[in-house]
């Protein structure tokens, strides 16, 4: 079973994305265990405060090092951690290769930043990988964490009922996904390519590879590099 621990000061933001659809089914099937840790539970402050003003001045609050350290130590007491990931716009851009790699890890910890970010010492001494979902800034790392988790969990064997579907996703072979069609075969004169109705699986597979390549060359030629 894969284990994912999430550290956040806004756990309610993760309730919906983690408890619906495929992610919910994956947990019910005990293929993955997701545990959310409320950072405030690890604060030594009597008011459960987890942030403070930045040294040197400037706007915005910074997540303190103590509660983050305490939470990570608590998790480490119960399991051997493979990766401690910080969701940050500064990190490496999330791609399919990263998701594939993380799906093979047994124990992942994801830290969600908030406010102005986290104490830099956390990044230097505790974080093993920083991941970004794009060159923009959000109010917190919870939504990026949900995106990362979704991309990883669907790759775990048994999560997607038809595992070959996940293997033919966009970016798996540095190609965009091929076009897909379903019934009816003719709608308003818009027809499904005849090859898909032929029943010749070899020719269908070849057609799909060719269309994927053409689509990638047109829309994302950088992937072919």
Q: Any idea what the shape is?
A: elongated
Q: Write down the overall mean pLDDT.
A: 93
Report on the biggest sheet.
5 strands, parallel
Report the top-level CATH class of the largest domain.
Answer: Alpha Beta
Structural class computed from helices and strand pairing: alpha/beta
> Could you give the order of the helices and strands?
EHHEEEHEHEHEHHEEH
- The gyration radius over C-alpha positions equals 21 Å
User: Unreliable stretches, pLDDT < 50, 5 or more residues?
Assistant: none
Question: End-to-end distance, in Å?
Answer: 36 Å
Beta-strand percent range: 15-25%
Biggest sheet strand order reads 2-1-6-5-7
Count up the domains. Answer: 2
Q: Please give the share of residues in helix.
A: 25-40%
CATH architecture level-2 label of the largest domain: 3-Layer(aba) Sandwich
Q: What's the helix count?
A: 8
The tally of beta strands, per DSSP, is 9
Structure, explained:
The protein is elongated. The protein has two domains: 2-153, SPOUT methyltransferase, trefoil knot domain (Alpha/beta knot), CATH 3.40.1280; 168-224, tRNA(m1g37)methyltransferase, domain 2 (Trp Operon Repressor, Chain A, Orthogonal Bundle), CATH 1.10.1270. With 225 residues, the chain is of the alpha/beta class. The strands form three sheets. The chain has a five-stranded parallel β-sheet, sandwiched between helices. The chain has a two-stranded antiparallel sheet with strand order 3-4. A two-stranded antiparallel sheet has the order 8-9. The longest helix is centred in the last third of the chain and has 19 residues, at 201-219. The model has no long low-confidence stretch (mean pLDDT 93). It is built from eight helices and nine strands.
